[in-house]
Sequence to fold (306 residues):
Amino acid sequence: MQHHNDTKEIDTMKIAFIGLGNMGGPMALNLHKAGHTVSAFDLSQPARDKLAADGVPVAADAKAAVQGAEVVISMLPASQHVDSLFLGQGELLAQLPAGTLVIDCSTIAAATSRKVAEAAKARGVDFIDAPVSGGTGGAIAGTLTFMVGGEVATLERARPLLEKMGANIFHAGAVGAGQTAKICNNMLLGILMAGTSEAIALGVANGLDPKVLSEIMRRSSGGNWALEKYNPMPGVMETAPASKGYAGGFGTDLMLKDLGLAQENAAAVKASTPLGGLARNLYAAHSIAGHGALDFSSIIKMVQKG
Ligand code: NAD
Fold:
């Protein structure tokens, strides 16, 4: 009964959602569809228009979006955007009354999460870092994995909302720990996408059908998330970005950012991450070649014939 009341209470909550890109757009829409009062904002007019067309109320700027909001969720590209929104030019934190809950779902440096969390705490605002995994497919389906850093009580406050956007919610540790878990995961993802691309390209160069080869590897010891859900070869998986000209999805430059965060972190703790370093360089070269805005699975272009 208690749980029912809690759920009901949060259902009436007002949420400001900042950052309506490939991930934030569908996440905000899922909260709206679940019956929450969402006020959404993005700097990009097309991103705002898309949400408005889906029936989600859109605000004129971030300050207007947070008026009366009990929860603020951000889904921005990188550290500098989060820093600037909450502490810098945006000064959004100064707009929030004590007791507001801030959930930052962006993948950023753990140090930036801690900096924003400190400033939030000084104002009596609760903060968790809650980066996600699962791709745009997971964001649309509401099946994301959340990796949360922060106090347990704050996570529990956020949980009913996270459950509307995700299927798996993990508490990784104190503020910043969600980010650390996320960059470990994405370092592995960058490596396995590059490796999967190499293997498919090798088979195709030998005349194998990429669909047949992908299915063989998916069911064998090389099976992985790229082969399950995100095949890098056009035409193998209808729903994957590869079959849509590598549009949407997870941008090469965002993967490059995450691999950079992993290397900075490795340097700080003197960890050995040779494959992570190589992967960062591969994605950097791919970005320099002009593919930064394409989905990261386009890394296969580096190793494909023709
Ligand atoms: P995106 O580039 O599609 O969207 C980011 C949006 O933020 C853009 O629409 C941009 O206009 C907006 N924005 C930037 N600064 C802003 C500000 N100050 N105020 C309001 N809006 C602002 O990126 P995405 O793919 O949605 O990724 C967002 C975050 O999630 C990144 O940190 C990324 O690494 C991470 N992530 C992405 C995926 C994926 O598959 N795309 C998966 C997991 C995590």
